[in-house]
Specification:
The protein is α+β, with helices and mostly antiparallel strands. It contains 3 helices and 2 strands, in the order H-H-H-E-E. It has one domain (6-101). Helix content is 52%, strand content 15%. The radius of gyration is 25 Å and the shape is globular. The relative contact order is 0.07. This is Wall-associated receptor kinase-like 9.
Length: 102
């Protein structure tokens, strides 16, 4: 952070132009958490409150944007697989068995 190289350390997918302020705020919080003097570090309550403030500053638009990206990635992961399933078992009567193929 002293040499202004924070964005060189992060994955390019994380560094988006509209997220730089948020990333800087989180990096500043991390820096405070890493203070060698335990008395100078923020409490967990302070950390939670700060992260909540940062999250709220993003607004509903960012949440919707992230959901759409998650939805797209999930669809991409499951993809059009050809799934075949077979099961056998008994139904009410222990002498009767069934088999189904999907």
């Amino acid at each position: 952070m002293k040499e202004d190289r924070l964005f060189d350390l992060l994955d390019a997918r994380v560094v988006k132009e509209d997220r730089k302020e948020e990333i800087n705020e989180i990096a500043f919080l991390v820096r405070r958490c890493m203070n060698l003097s335990g008395k100078k570090r923020p409490t967990m309550m302070e950390i939670a409150m700060e992260l909540e403030r940062i999250r709220k500053c993003q607004g509903d638009f960012k949440a919707q944007e992230n959901f759409e990206e998650f939805k797209y990635n999930t669809i991409e992961l499951i993809g059009p697989w050809d799934v075949t399933s077979a099961s056998t078992g008994s139904f009410l009567n222990t002498n009767a068995s069934y088999s189904s193929y999907v």
